[in-house]
Structures are given as C-alpha cells and as structure tokens.
Design brief:
single chain; 284 residues; alpha+beta; Alpha-Beta Plaits; four-stranded antiparallel sheet; globular
C-alpha cells in the first residue's frame, strides 16, 4: 500500500506573542498540495523497520527519533498491535522547509496503519496519536484545508477552491525554532485576528488572502536573505498573483490564475534559480 504525505502550505499565518511557557498562539489558514513524500508499506515479516531514499534523504535518520517511527510506536501502544509491515519513505520534499515535512510523513503513516490494522478505530483516537507527534500532527493527519487556532491543534475544516501554485525552495534550511526566536527578538506582535469567509472562486480567495500575512516571513528573511530574493523574483513575474513564505520557510509559494500560468512560472523560475527546488502543483 502506498500513501502520499502531502506538502502543507500556510496561506496565512498570524502569530501572537509567546505565552508564559514560550509557546505562540496562532491563527493560520492551511491547505495541502497534490505533491509530497511517498510512503510505502510492505508486509515482508521484517518490520517494523523504516527505510528512506529520495532526493532529500541525506542526513535524515531512520532511527527511533524519526517522527514516522514515533507515530508507529504510539500506534502500537494505543492499539496493542505489533506492526509487521516495513515502512519505506521516499523523501521528495526539502528538509526544514515549512511544508509539514515530518508531521506530514507521520500523519500519512498513521492513516495507513489504521487502514491496515485498525479500520474501526474512531477518528478521535487517531487524532490523539497524531497530536502527540507535534503541533502540526492533526492537520497533517487529514491533509484537509483548515483554519488552525490555539497552537495549531484547534482545527475548523473549510472548503477552498483549487489553487494553481508554484513552490520554490532555494535549498537553505530554515529551522522553525530559530525563526520563532528571531520573531521574538523583533518584539513586535501585530494583531492576530484572521478573518476568512468561504469563497467559491480562486480569484476571490486570492483577494481574501491579500488581507492576511505571514508573521514569520520577516524573521525568516532576516536569517536567510536568499528567501527575500526568491520572493522578489516571484513577485516580479507576470503570472504571480500572490507570493508569500509558507510557515517558517524556506519554501515560498506563488498563486497563479491557471495551471498553464503555474507551469510557465515554474519554467521561468528554473532559469532564474537553476539550483532551487521548484514544483508546479495544485492546492486544495
């Protein structure tokens, strides 16, 4: 069995000042791309065992610290089941990229494990396991557009039109803790209220998104100025209707009016940024 760990994109991300524990309440409109990491389950009697390949597998450990194995162990503990399948990850998404990454992989694995071992498990039990893997755990479990609040764990699923999109990452790491630390050093926390009204047309959604922002964009650019250069390239292209950093970066996204525009933009960016990771995709 094969499942897709879809890339997560933060269309908007409003971040409040840290609370007494140092955690940041937030509001975010998230959606998912039709590209991501591939995960394959094989029942060869040698599991549980995680193997990894793919263009971004270098430096990614397959030991118990990997979120996939953490999710698998917690599924075993919750269900009392010994997992016999081997899990193979083809890592297609850059690391520390602001697109879900390990949380998306863990969520996809949990969906697969339920299908294989506990098809009658209620959603809330599976969500509890996903939540234990991290703040993005539940949203990446379902890979559905949602308004996220709290610390990312409070979700209200929403209906979004499909968006033509280009993702680009200049292949610099942008670790989330470092970006949040830089955000705190700025000492400026704008009003966090994020308003979203359901819309049916992509153009209307893009107009709505322009009223929002990503509060982590500035600190991410401050730590990695090349991210700002990528954004400038995106915003200079005629196909781009909105460009922004996703999450804590370094992946940036551009929304386009059509799939044809997205592919044309991807081709233009490939000439400008030949070393970058670039993909045309659909969101929603």
């Amino acid at each position: 069995m094969q499942v897709l760990a879809q890339a997560k994109v933060n269309l908007c991300l409003h971040v409040e000042a840290p609370d007494h524990r140092g955690y940041h309440p937030l509001q975010s409109l998230v959606t998912f791309a039709d590209i991501g990491d591939d995960i394959r389950f094989t029942d060869d009697g040698e599991g549980p065992l995680l193997t990894i390949d793919g263009p971004f597998s270098a430096g990614l450990g397959a030991g118990e610290g990997n979120l996939i194995l953490k999710a698998l162990r917690r599924f075993e503990a919750e269900t009392g089941t010994r997992i016999s399948h081997r899990v193979h990850l083809s890592k297609n998404l850059p690391l520390a990229a602001g697109v879900g990454g390990g949380s998306a992989d863990a969520g996809a694995v949990l969906r697969g494990l339920r299908a294989l071992y506990a098809p009658d498990m209620p959603d809330d039990r599976l969500e509890a396991i996903a939540a234990s893997t991290g703040a993005d755990g539940v949203m990446c479990l379902w890979s559905r557009p949602a308004m996220a609040q709290g610390y990312g764990e409070k979700l209200r699923f929403v209906s979004l039109p499909t968006l033509a999109c280009v993702l680009i990452n200049p292949l610099v790491a942008s670790p989330t803790p470092a970006v949040y630390a830089a955000y705190d050093r700025q000492g400026v926390f704008p009003p966090s209220e994020l308003r979203f009204e359901p819309v049916q047309q992509a153009a209307a959604l893009i107009d709505c998104l322009k009223q929002g922002r990503n509060d982590l964009e500035s600190p991410a650019v401050g730590l990695n100025p090349v991210i700002g250069e990528v954004l400038a390239s995106l915003r200079a292209q005629p196909q781009t209707q909105l460009a922004r950093v996703s999450g804590s970066g370094a992946t940036c996204f551009a929304l386009c009016a059509s799939d044809a525009d997205a592919h044309a933009l991807a081709d233009a960016l490939s000439a400008l940024w030949p070393e970058a990771w670039i993909r045309a995709c659909r969101l929603g």
